[in-house]
Write a structure and sequence with these properties.
Blueprint: H1 24-27, H2 29-39, H3 58-75, H4 81-89, H5 100-111, E1 114-117, H6 124-129, E2 135-138, H7 156-167, H8 170-184, H9 189-204, E3 207-208, E4 216-217, H10 220-223, H11 226-231, E5 236-239, H12 242-247, E6 250-251, E7 258-262, H13 265-276, H14 283-287, E8 298-299
Parallel strand pairs: 1-2, 3-7, 5-7, 6-8
Antiparallel strand pairs: 3-4
Helix pairs in contact: 8-9, 8-13
Amino acid sequence: MIDWTRLTPLDAGGVTVGRAEAHPGFADPDYVRRRNLIADRARGHRVGEPSPRVRYTEAEHATWRRVHGALWRTQDGRVCPELLRARAVAPIPADGVPQHEEVSDGLQALTGFRFTLAGGIVPNKRFLGAMAEGYFHAVQYVRHPAMPLYTPEPDVLHDVFGHGIHLADPFFADLYRTVGRAASRVDSADALDLISRVYWFTLEYGVVLERRRQPEAYGAALLSSYGELARFTRADLRPFDLTEMARMPYQVAGYQPVLFTVESPTHLADLLHAFLDDFDENTRHRLRLPAPAERGFVSHPPQR
C-alpha cells in the first residue's frame, strides 16, 4: 500500500503536476471515501438552505492551515491590490477549516453573498444562475494532505478562501451578480456555455496587466493555487477577447497555458457589463461568436 502522506508535495516552481487521475486525491481510496462522504451530503440540497456542519479532522485542519499560510504569503506582490484589501476584511479564518455558515454570515454583512452547498461540479444553469440571488456554490471537502499545494479539483480552500476574497468585496460581488443575472435570462446549453467560458477566463483565471507593471492575478482559481500563482506570469497572456475565449479549450484539472488580461478591475467591469447586461439567447448571433461546434473542448476532472 502507498503511504500517501510521505509523498513530497508539489513545489512552487510550476513543475509538471502529472495526470489528474494519478493524484492521491483520486488514487487514495481512503481519501476518496472521506471526500465522497462529505460530498454526498449535497444530494437534494436546495439553493439557499443552510449547509450542514462537518466535523473536520485535525489532519484536515492542518492542511487548511498549511495551504492558507502558503497562499497568503504567495499572494503578496502577485495579486491586484483591490483584492489584497478585500482579503484583509474577508471573514475567513487562518487556523482551521471554517463552516460554510460562519463565513456566510460574515460575507452577508459585507456584500449580501452566502455559500450554498455543492458536492462537486454543478450544472451551469444552477451554478451561474444562483449568483443573481447572492448564492455561490461551494464544496466542503479538503484537498489531499500529501499534495496540499495542488489539487486537480476545486475544494473548500478554492471555494471558500479563493472565492470568499472576491465575495467580501462589493465591486467583485457585483460582477458575480452580473454573471448570475445573465444566466438567469437564458436556458439553452449554447448560451450558458458562453457565459461559463467568459466567467472561467475572468473571475476564475483573470489577470490584470497594466502598462509598465508586472501582471497581477485577480481570478479566484489563481488566488487559491500556490503553484499557479508562482508561474502565471509565464503563461501565454492575451488581451480580453470574447471570440478567443469561446474557442479556447481548457481543463479544470491542471494549470492553464493561456490566460486573458484586462487593464484594471474597472476595465474588467466595463467589459463584463457590456457583454452580459443585455445577454440573451441571440447574443451569439448578434456578436458573431463561435457556434458550439467551433468552441474548444472543456476537460473536467475524472469521475469518481
